[in-house]
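Quick illustration for those who missed Monday's session on complexes.
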Amino acid sequence: MQITRKISDDIVYVGVGDKRLARFENLFPLPSGVTYNSYLILDDKVALMDTADSDVTDQFIDNIETALEGRTIDYLVVHHMEPDHGANIKRLLDRYPQMKVVGNTKIETMIHQFFDVDLTDRMVIVKEGDSLPLGKHELTFVMAPMVHWPEVMVSYDKTTKTLFSADAFGTFGDLDGALFNDEVDFPEDYLDEARRYYANIVGKYGMQTQALLKKAAGLEIEMIAPLHGPVWRSNLEYFIDKYQTWSSYEPEEKGVLILVGSIYGHTHRAADKLAAALKEEGVSKVKMYDVSKTDVSYLISEIFKYSHVVLACATYNNGIFPKMADFIHDCQALCVQNRQVAIVENGSWAPASGKLIREELAKMKKMEVLEPQVTIKSSLKKEQEEELCQLAKVFAQSLKEGE
Ligand SMILES: Cc1cc2nc3c(=O)[nH]c(=O)nc-3n(C[C@H](O)[C@H](O)[C@H](O)COP(=O)(O)O)c2cc1C
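Prediction with flavin mononucleotide bound:
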């Protein structure tokens, strides 16, 4: 059985969706799966654009064999060596003995690291701007180092004006039979997962992503074919604009994200009070999460989205409540920056989480702390309720600025 679709007259999607994988990179929950995209260009020469994860090998090979209709593969273009795309390189080298691998020198090195293969006379090394003629199609290679591994490159097909974008413009989520962005309700059903993918996987490398966007701006692109999620053939500016926003660490939306680290719920009550006060002040977008309940990858995605953040946190063994500390650590690792943040701390004998959170924020770029910092000693009292109302006013004013 094969499951393939054409993305143009002679380019066939041979990728595979996987709904069974629980966590991407054994880390990020996948409630609706993921796709491993791969594309076969059937020209005078046949080029396969990347392979797929070992979990889907059988279906992937079936797809390729059907699309080939008895032909063989001349070139395997490797854009990225992460095993969710590179796992089948050796298998394909064995299966198609005349196939050559196209990639840069770092890709060649990594192929040898991952596999015991002899690449003598089987490697075509390419650098920035090099081209590979296939017949009607000609691929031009553009290096994209650290988006999000060092060897990453993308390629551009002049004939169909397609950018094979590697992991850039990828999205979590299986596609349920769809292939193109205009076959799904992307803003409704995929945007959150696209942001979660970007923020957690590529988010650390904003500068490198900006460099790639700059190079891409010089190309006439009508289709973006990433390694995960839908192929973009319409409204490209919409998704490119999202990437501009995310990679420059600009908030996507004005609104307040409240993150609560609470052991017994008292800190939650304070967060509830603040949320209600924000509503009273006319703040339309307020979103609250318990950091113990929500996987940190969703919290990271949300902080990439919202302009303003409240960290409401209990003190735990003279430290920051562990789940909140984990979140802050992830923010630092992913270079989260440029947000307005307020702190609500709690402690029964020596509240310290506020001071410690402030120290962590100071290590990050452009994280402005809004005052007052509110200190609760066990449960919320009248005095702190007033401080929370005052903080809500400060937020409302800050949100209005620049409108
Ligand atoms: C294991 C544990 C360690 C704690 N460590 C501290 C501490 O170092 N300093 C402090 O002031 N309170 C400490 N507390 C108390 C809590 O911070 C305090 O009771 C707070 O009000 C809890 O808020 P919550 O109801 O939102 O969980 C600790 C509580 C627990 C359960």
